[in-house]
Each structure stands twice: as structure tokens, then as C-alpha cells.
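Side project, low priority. Logging it here so it doesn't get lost.
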Amino acid sequence: MINTAERDTEKIRKGLKAKYFCMVLVIVFEIALVLVVWLVGHSARRKEKECTQPLDAVVLEESTRIVNQHHLVRTKHGVKTKTTAVIQVKTDGVFKQSIITVPTAKYERGQELKVFYDPDDPDDYYIEGDIETAFTTQKVIIVIAALWAIVCVILVRIVKKDVKKLKNTEK
């Protein structure tokens, strides 16, 4: 028959394995968040640095369409739709795309904006406001990563405490 001390030790061991697993998952997720923060910032800074040639543009239309007409995706709010904006760009001969379709609802018909492209790579461009959106996204992810780092620290402390408790019960 197993005595109380052995049962407590086994219970702590099982709990410790689960906590180690959770701790590893939390740390992996934290590393992924840090990588996403870096990638979003790096991409936005690169576009801002390289895409320097401005062009005037105007939003021709904003349309909402059903995502998949053959298989209507029903949600609790109705049929799933996608909003796009069609933007006409006044090209300068280097930038070849006179029409850009973007998947967003943040533009209104007739709205004037700027499109910035890379003179060395005209296929690389961004629309005015996209960089600010990327930096805002980066800030939100930084806050989430900071909160997640606190969870990491708490989990590490709990695991350390349980390891110490396990060592004390084994003595």
C-alpha cells in the first residue's frame, strides 16, 4: 500500500508535468508573438523606406459581395460577405496598375488618397494609411506580448515552487 508521502509526491509530479507542458506552450506562443511584432514592424518600415514615389488615386467604388455563392456561409448575423474597394490610380508610366482592388471597408466612394510605390520595384506599393495601420497593429501585439510575458513569468514561478516542493517531499 502506498503511504501518504508517496501519494503526495506522485500527485505533485503529475501536476508538475502538466505545468511544464503549459509553460512550454506559453513560452512558444510568446516567441511567436515577438516574431510577429518584428515582422510587422520590419515590413512596414521597409515599405515606408522604399516606396517613396507618390501617386494620386481615387476610390471608384466600394462593394460588398457574398464570399461563396455556391456554398452560402451562414453566420449568426446572416450570410458571410466581403467588402472591397476599387481604387483608380493616376499612373506615371512606371507604376503600371491603374486599378487596385483592396479588401477593406475603410474607404468611401470618391475619397482621394495617395499610393506610394517603390521606383526600383513598381509592384511593391502601399496605400496612404496602411503604414499607420501596421504600426498600430504592432503596438497592439506588443501589449498582448507584454501581458503574455507576465503569464510566462507567473508560470515559471509556479513551476519552480512545485519543483522545490517536490524536492522537499522526496527528502
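Brief comment: The longest strand covers residues 53-66.
Revisit when time allows.
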